[in-house]
Specification:
mainly alpha, two-stranded antiparallel sheet, two-stranded parallel ribbon, 44% helix, 110 residues, DNA-binding, Arc Repressor Mutant, subunit A
DNA sequence: CCCGTGACGACAT
DNA sequence: TATGTCGCCACGG
């Protein structure tokens, strides 16, 4: 039942994010072809909470590498999870962001 | 069918 | 450099 919505597309891409790497909403939106609708990506994540399998939304940050979603995870849970995967996080901001940045439009491109 | 919503991004000042 | 405003578009009610 290919009732796949824009959200499902986002989830697929997010689940492709390798451990220890992060990406931005804009990068995902760009990969999906809706670069102007980066908001839709974030909006999709809000509904990803009950998706199966769970979506590593904690690996998705904004363009600045800032853990904007941590507010939704509750506490510093997001930073802790990223840190657990080897991602350096400081003050809700990913250190060496460009170093751990994983761009689907590049990594999955061909 | 119309309106509001929203985990962002780029541009203007 | 920092802050403010607009645009983007899919989904739910």
């Amino acid at each position: 039942m290919p009732d796949l919505t824009f959200y499902d597309l986002v989830y697929q891409v997010v689940r492709l994010i390798p451990k220890g790497r992060v990406t931005s909403y804009g990068a995902i939106a760009n990969y999906l072809g809706t670069k102007g609708s980066s908001r839709m990506v974030g909006y999709a994540m809000q509904a990803c909470g009950r998706e199966q399998p769970p979506v590593p939304a904690h690996r998705v940050v904004n363009r600045q590498g800032l853990l904007t979603a941590k507010f939704h995870f509750g506490g510093d849970l997001m930073a802790e999870m990223l840190r657990s995967e080897g991602v350096a996080v400081k003050d809700d901001q990913v250190q060496d962001f460009k170093n751990v940045f994983w761009d689907p439009s590049v990594e999955l491109a061909m």
